[in-house]
Amino acid sequence: MNSTSSLVTGGVTMSAATLVPLVTWAMNGLPKPIPDGIPLLVAAGLITGLHAAYNIYVARAAAKAIPVAPATPAVPAAQVAPSIIQS
């Protein structure tokens, strides 16, 4: 697993604590009151999803960057020089 999987964009690291005020503000528009811990859980879920998507993107980009050498076929015994077969 990538040990440097923090989402850093423009020098700002995104974390659940960064999104809690935004999620709290968005949830204030709901018709019923919400418990105090819910905005933190929603923010943590969003950040976890972003981290997972970023890790998938980086893994796919790295896989595309590595050229795969074609497999060399094995030479059948009938095509091997007779001097190699005689011992």
Summarize the structure.
By secondary structure, the protein is mostly helical.
Poorly predicted runs of 5 or more residues:
none
Tell me what portion of residues adopts beta-strand conformation. Answer: under 5%
The count of β-strands is 2
Helix content: 40-55%
> Residue-averaged pLDDT, rounded?
73
- Overall shape: it is rod-shaped
- The separation of the N and C termini measures 50 Å
Strand order of the biggest β-sheet: 1-2
Using only CA atoms, what is the Rg? Answer: 27 Å
Task: Give the class from helix and strand content and strand pairing.
Answer: mainly alpha
Output the helix-strand order. EEHHH
> Please, how many helices?
3
Instruction: Give the biggest sheet.
Output: 2 strands, antiparallel
Keywords:
single chain; 87 residues; mainly alpha; two-stranded antiparallel sheet; 51% helix; rod-shaped
Description of the structure:
The mean pLDDT is 73. Strands 1-2 form a two-stranded antiparallel sheet. It has 3 helices and 2 strands; from the N terminus they run E-E-H-H-H. The chain is rod-shaped.
Topology (elements, then pairings):
Elements: E1 8-9, E2 12-13, H1 16-27, H2 38-65, H3 82-85
Antiparallel strand pairs: 1-2
Helix pairs in contact: 1-2
